[in-house]
């Protein structure tokens, strides 16, 4: 319903007519915009309002009275008086409706107040129940926290006792480990001595490189030392493994004890918290987070298992220390007995080698005398061969010159025949002399070889004596004492 005197609705508020299904012809469109005014940018500054707005805006305001500048609306546009409007324009209520409305409001107010009073009573009882329930619940939680703190204190004391015992046992086993390491390091000296003796005896030359009793005893000594080292190393590995077990058990105890201390601190703090304590806050949704990983049974069993594991490790460690002590004593005695056997074998072998050396020296002097005499004979034969070679050169030179005689002068006369015979005789003599020279040289070589063999054998014996007497026995004069092998120092 539109009231009189209001501006008309804008054109853009009216519903648009439906678009035509077929576009108009180009000629029709052209005819429609021929008489249009060209586009001016100033048109954008004017608002889009109906014609009545433009008419009102066109009035020029003046300072004259309103009656003079605005004569008023025409009679057709004046709103008529209410009594003059037709029936049904405004809504009317009866007096009964008015009374009924008041009574309804009174009853609703009384009902609402009655409900509010009952709600206040219910809220008072509910608040009292909430306080009592909260106090009872908080008291039970505090009691449970106190019991939990007592349980933690008990297991803390058990863990501390077992941890002290494990630390003492671990320290004792660590001392035994150091003794084993020193004993194992002390066996390195005798092992290196025996090994060097074998290596030095490998430098023996010729026939002296023999597998004698000394070598057998040295090999036996190396085997014994290696066996002792292996047993000591196995024992050391066992001790190291046991130390690791002890350390793991100790770490488990320390970790469990640290967790107990942290849990004791947290639970004690929770036990002491009150409604008036400082530092309490809201943690929304924390009750829905279940971060627990154990129950009281598994919690107590975990600590009990740690203590039992530590006690088992301590018992095993004590047995291992006793067996290690007996092993140290046995290996030291075994190595000492074999050391004495090797020294006795060296002494007898040195005496035998010295006797062989004196006999070789006698044979060597005789061989040198024979070599001197055969060398003298070889020099005589070489001089004779040189003389015969000169004669051969003369005879062959004559025959070569006679081959240049011209024509019939190339006569096979007595001189030619004799020269040929002379060359053949000299060649035969030279062959015989060369055979003698070769035989003498072969004999000289045999003597020289025999001399070389004797010299080599003499050098071999000297080398063997030097190795056995100086190098090997020089290293075996001292041996680590039993106290050092046992690792006491």
TrEMBL record:
* Subcellular location per the Swiss-Prot or TrEMBL entry: Cytoplasm, Cytoskeleton, Cilium axoneme; Cytoplasm, Cytoskeleton, Flagellum axoneme; Cytoplasmic vesicle, Secretory vesicle, Acrosome outer membrane
Give the keywords, sorted: Cell projection, Cilium, Cytoplasm, Cytoplasmic vesicle, Cytoskeleton, Flagellum, Membrane, Ubl conjugation
Membrane topology of the entry: Peripheral membrane protein
Name where it mostly resides: cytoplasm
Is Cytoplasm set as a keyword in this record? yes
Q: Which InterPro entries match?
A: Tektin-like (IPR048256), Tektins (IPR000435)
Keyword set includes Ubl conjugation: yes
What are the annotated GO cellular component locations?
A: axoneme; microtubule cytoskeleton; nucleus; outer acrosomal membrane; sperm flagellum
Record's superkingdom? Answer: Eukaryota
In the record, biological process GO terms are: cilium assembly; cilium movement involved in cell motility
The Swiss-Prot or TrEMBL record describes its family as follows: Belongs to the tektin family.
PANTHER family in UniProt: TEKTIN, TEKTIN-3
Task: Summarize subunit and interaction data from the UniProt record for this chain.
Answer: Microtubule inner protein component of sperm flagellar doublet microtubules. Interacts with TEKT1, TEKT2, TEKT4 and TEKT5. Interacts with CCDC38.
Functionally, this protein is described as follows: Microtubule inner protein (MIP) part of the dynein-decorated doublet microtubules (DMTs) in cilia and flagellar axoneme. Forms filamentous polymers in the walls of ciliary and flagellar microtubules. Required for normal sperm mobility.
Q: What is this protein called?
A: Tektin
Please tell me the species this chain comes from.
Answer: Cnemophilus loriae
List the lineage, top down. Answer: Eukaryota, Metazoa, Chordata, Craniata, Vertebrata
What is the gene called? Tekt3
